[in-house]
Amino acid sequence: MSGNTFGHLFRVTTFGESHGVAIGCVIDGVPAGIRLDTAQIQHDLDRRRPGQSKVSTMRNESDSVEILSGVMAGVTTGTALAMLIRNSDQHSSDYENLSHCFRPGHADYGYFKKYGIRDYRGGGRSSGRETAMRVAAGAVAKQLLAFYGISLQAYSIRIGGVSAKNFDLSQVESNIVRSADPEVADAMIAAIRTAQSELDSVGGIIECRADGVPAGLGEVVFDKLDALIAHAMLSIGGIKGVEFGAGFAAADLRGKNNNDPITPGGFSSNNAGGILGGISTGQPIVFRVAMKPTSSIAQEQQTIDENGNAVTLCVHGRHDPCLVPRAVPVVEAMTALVLADMLLQNRASRL
Amino acid sequence: MSGNTFGHLFRVTTFGESHGVAIGCVIDGVPAGIRLDTAQIQHDLDRRRPGQSKVSTMRNESDSVEILSGVMAGVTTGTALAMLIRNSDQHSSDYENLSHCFRPGHADYGYFKKYGIRDYRGGGRSSGRETAMRVAAGAVAKQLLAFYGISLQAYSIRIGGVSAKNFDLSQVESNIVRSADPEVADAMIAAIRTAQSELDSVGGIIECRADGVPAGLGEVVFDKLDALIAHAMLSIGGIKGVEFGAGFAAADLRGKNNNDPITPGGFSSNNAGGILGGISTGQPIVFRVAMKPTSSIAQEQQTIDENGNAVTLCVHGRHDPCLVPRAVPVVEAMTALVLADMLLQNRASRL
Amino acid sequence: MSGNTFGHLFRVTTFGESHGVAIGCVIDGVPAGIRLDTAQIQHDLDRRRPGQSKVSTMRNESDSVEILSGVMAGVTTGTALAMLIRNSDQHSSDYENLSHCFRPGHADYGYFKKYGIRDYRGGGRSSGRETAMRVAAGAVAKQLLAFYGISLQAYSIRIGGVSAKNFDLSQVESNIVRSADPEVADAMIAAIRTAQSELDSVGGIIECRADGVPAGLGEVVFDKLDALIAHAMLSIGGIKGVEFGAGFAAADLRGKNNNDPITPGGFSSNNAGGILGGISTGQPIVFRVAMKPTSSIAQEQQTIDENGNAVTLCVHGRHDPCLVPRAVPVVEAMTALVLADMLLQNRASRL
Amino acid sequence: MSGNTFGHLFRVTTFGESHGVAIGCVIDGVPAGIRLDTAQIQHDLDRRRPGQSKVSTMRNESDSVEILSGVMAGVTTGTALAMLIRNSDQHSSDYENLSHCFRPGHADYGYFKKYGIRDYRGGGRSSGRETAMRVAAGAVAKQLLAFYGISLQAYSIRIGGVSAKNFDLSQVESNIVRSADPEVADAMIAAIRTAQSELDSVGGIIECRADGVPAGLGEVVFDKLDALIAHAMLSIGGIKGVEFGAGFAAADLRGKNNNDPITPGGFSSNNAGGILGGISTGQPIVFRVAMKPTSSIAQEQQTIDENGNAVTLCVHGRHDPCLVPRAVPVVEAMTALVLADMLLQNRASRL
Hints:
Helix content of chain A: 10-25%
Oligomer: homotetramer
CATH architecture of chain A: 4-Layer Sandwich
Number of strands of chain A: 18
Strand content of chain A: 15-25%
Strand order of the largest sheet of chain A: 1-2-3-7-4
CATH topology of chain A: Chorismate synthase, AroC fold
Radius of gyration of chain A: 21 Å
């Protein structure tokens, strides 16, 4: 209930602070019989890890994951699957000067008001570091999905005001900003570096699509597939919006144009983003999320301390000038968690 | 798990089909001691009910609610509070011609694939009619919130391409489209009527704000306050996107401009929409949702029947040419459910 | 969370007070495609209803159930199935003299301390009347189980000190105390009538067995099948203990004698009660529950009022001198709910 | 859902196999502000650990626990608290000869039928080893409870047919069988050693009492306090029954004798075991559990292998001849988890 668990049948619980001993997760409900490819898990963690490129933070954590349980001779046993990553490259001293004031754009103020205590070192539990375990758990979910022919991919479609135009999804992982359009990758990188040089940061938009999702996933009324994905997306730090298919643009369409005609060969458009009435239709699931610019910036900002006094603060430390490229695998992971959960839950739909 | 329940400590379960015997809900977790104002519940139901104005469907259901349990001498007892609305003005025969084909833009296809059976009469469980019970439950939640000084209001800010510019929230309920800007209400109405006369429909955008929310609501990591609200919003039929504070526009801002400075007198802007790191900050919570145009339109559309044959279909019946005005109280209700749940859950945060 | 919901995938929420408007339930997660036999539901309700025999209360409620949703043309649709029973034969005035004091053996005191308010009329939510909806929901679960070849039966094995010796389960429903041994039924009846004539009450022991349960039901660690059944049993008012297989007697056995040998033809004994390590083994599931004597007795008892003053109280009204016979279908129903839930959940165990 | 999680607001998820890398747990919902005494956690683990006395297994695991998250400067932060114990003294080779056959009295058969795969090494996830993490989590719960004046203690009241008669709870931890009656401890020890010398094992009965529990804990209908405790108890491997207060003996009492009279000074007896209608009354909570004799015995037993062939099997390895003494802290821990959860949940009962 306190927020560290996601999902029902495929259920992930994560723990750990950015500057604590370790981060980890437990997945309850991994079906028995998956021949687990641990290299794939590490691969996704590497896609998320800091220090991976010149546009990411220079923190350098190897984020090598250890599987603690739930697997025997490489095959999942059906019991709780736990994974652990020890923290390593921490500079807690970077945060000493922040220990009594609230960083603008961060969870500091809310955590303090909520708990009366907070881990000021790198945000503690509210740090983006917790997303590593989402990625690890998502990588397990992806292997379950792959068994049933479901694949998914996320990619940047806008960074620092630069938009992808011609998508080539085969090239997403070949450019460091994970742009869907490799031709604008350099412009995106330039936007990030300019902001960084000005002690500032930029945001962007990520799109995610899932292919091979059978019709029928999602539950009625409150647990619609899009509702669960929206929940998953807004649970990622820095995400400020989500839209499915035509999204906000649908608000301006007429019904005739927005409805996707159905033909014997399938739907002839996909304004719905693959979900109607909360249930997957068999079309690709497509949605987008908006990510705000990194809150930690190395220029002066106004804030207050725990006693309510005005303070001028400058967030030093090693921060990503743009979180979008590293958030791409997190978006994939959270989508995978939702789909895995719905896939299992759908098994209970009929006699 | 099957989707008919929402929330944890303040937990609502709804039931009922549009053309069945009745719709209803059970709220588990209403704290004891609320002097329940049933007129307020009926008032919100009246704001949602069909037939309320010239821009809504002409179906005419009184939607009068009966409280079945959980209240004694007008005060909540802490036990399950159930409410019931008998269905009345149903024209099931309107749907006979649809009984074997899938309406474009509707849940029909997915439900059939999921369950192998579907209630074709008005969408059955997937009908917007189920939102009446969200409104009833939300009206109870609002009374809990009001006790703690929390109020909320939703309103239309865009319909059929017409945008609200100057907000006057005191006038929202004085115009039939619930426009935040009473001056553009007539233009919004005109956009709806034009579409209707062309056998078509329009969508729009609703904004919701909650005032008086204390800092500290929301849970860490997966149950962030914005994640839960996003879940709630996308669970409403026809909603295709949600954004908080600056929302999608934040993707184009620099960190310096997006961060809300904190001063001894409070935050000096609200790009965050009242939520940072998933926890409320004490500022007003502000978000927007995009609603697609009504899927049921009285002009010909291409679809298929249950055997996969091409069919041309025209959805007769009495449908809203624009769902936005009636969705406004539904958005409020779902927001109230989330806040009530988080308010109670927050009581467990500290010793 | 507040206790009105049971189960995960096959999940029942009940509501209603004994002297309120109605009692009802919502079952979320009934698989689509069950051809529902409503007469079977009513049959089980009749087995539980008051006024059914000379050893039960003389209250006479027909308890006729109305299905409100989730069924179309007699077949479950996969959506929430709601059922309602209007209350009828209430004598709330019987309770006026109890409105300010706490009946010994009842929930009155705890409810008052918990909620600061309580429905004194017949116990309100804590009344045994709520078990009617358990029976209704359990009757739906039984039909799901029957489809997979699982049947279950409960019966009295001890009442007022009289024990069943020779079991003939075909005769259980032929005697009004539902004794497993028809030969001692009269002695059990006599024990009840004697107690009643002395303004007192008696308790007893119910055994339940489930046949046809496949090996593999139940979940690891905390949701062992016996743990869930124990939860279900102790949630029934008046039940004070539960034991599986050899039960408390196992505490005195040696390992060699308690272990059930396994042979190519199956287990050669059933001290385990059909469950090992929390997982069903394919043997019959067998357990027993102890029911206390009815707390409401028509003789003077010492208690206190809401102000803490000593009061002498005599509980008039129409009470069962022994609850065991009417509890038999409740025990069956709760067992059916657990098994239905575990049956569906087990579908997620493997690839 | 898959059984590795217990509780709602104070919620524990455990993982790990007896012969895997490690065992661990995550507690979600520990309120912020508890000054955590880690020595107390280790103390309870030491009370449970193997090799602690001449009547326990000679396996010698130090079971030293590491706290991974959720605590800063010795105080809980409100975020997920994870704990880890690395496995050490494993003799997996002891189990090679068991790798293809099912040990009588163990979960082997059910797990194989459920998952199609099983970890034969020491029972894997079904091993009693998982209870170490229950004890660790329970020790945290105890510290929360202690803050509110709630204490609890479990003790052996019967082992191998020897019953405690005169209770002296101050001496429970001074004898190695944790007998409530120190005078019969030697007789209990003798019963265990005799069985052991005959390559056999014995069971027993544990009683637990909780003092200082305020009136009002527990939820209505399905989540009655006794239902949750029963769930908790039957989730412990080897427990075959549970009874509250007068328990099974209540089945033979008259209502007049079983009802606990209420006086201005409190209840004048405690047949209810401190719980009425599922809600605590403020009296001590008292219940007993029956534990079967250890299933692993070093004499020949009949069983089958995975192909269904008859096999004669002798379970070597280092097994406790009686699990009761080491189960005492497990019973306490599970009780503490229930009470902590109910304590937090009760905060939502009223305005």
